[in-house]
């Protein structure tokens, strides 16, 4: 590999490193908020499993733990522009949005007994929709796929 051209008055001039877009910071913040919500959900699911073990409870616990692990593992590689982290986060975001829809339906059905379920489903779905929008912006895609 050839050395960069020497300047007439000093050391060689290196090309400037590309600057990370600020939208990456937004994606990282949304992932941290998602991780916090998932950890609270996993704790609540584990607590409910201590009282009665059910198949839906085990599935919900496994899903929230998966989303928490994904949200904790992806921000640093995304900040470096890693494609695999972007693809993993994008796929998990689609799954997160899809899993929020049944929570909203359950919250509407249980609204008289447990109105907080609807609020959790709405916050969950809006958070993942916002993350999907942030991942799909032109600066983020340019940073990852450059």
TrEMBL record:
Q: Where are the transmembrane segments?
A: 30-49, 55-73, 85-104, 116-135
- Supply the alphabetized keyword list: Membrane, Transmembrane, Transmembrane helix
Keyword Membrane present in the record's keywords: the answer is yes
User: What name does this protein carry?
Assistant: Uncharacterized protein
| Native species | Glycomyces paridis
């Amino acid at each position: 590999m050839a050395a960069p051209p020497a300047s007439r008055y000093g050391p060689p001039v290196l090309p400037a490193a590309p600057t990370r877009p600020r939208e990456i910071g937004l994606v990282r913040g949304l992932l941290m908020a998602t991780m916090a919500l998932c950890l609270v959900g996993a704790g609540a699911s584990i607590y409910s499993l201590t009282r009665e073990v059910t198949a839906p409870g085990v599935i919900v616990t496994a899903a929230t733990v998966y989303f928490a692990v994904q949200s904790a593992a992806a921000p640093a590689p995304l900040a470096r522009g890693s494609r695999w982290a972007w693809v993993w986060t994008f796929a998990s975001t689609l799954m997160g949005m899809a899993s929020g829809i049944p929570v909203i339906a359950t919250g509407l059905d249980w609204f008289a007994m447990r109105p907080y379920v609807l609020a959790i489903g709405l916050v969950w779905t809006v958070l993942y929709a916002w993350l999907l929008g942030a991942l799909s912006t032109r600066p983020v895609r340019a940073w990852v796929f450059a």
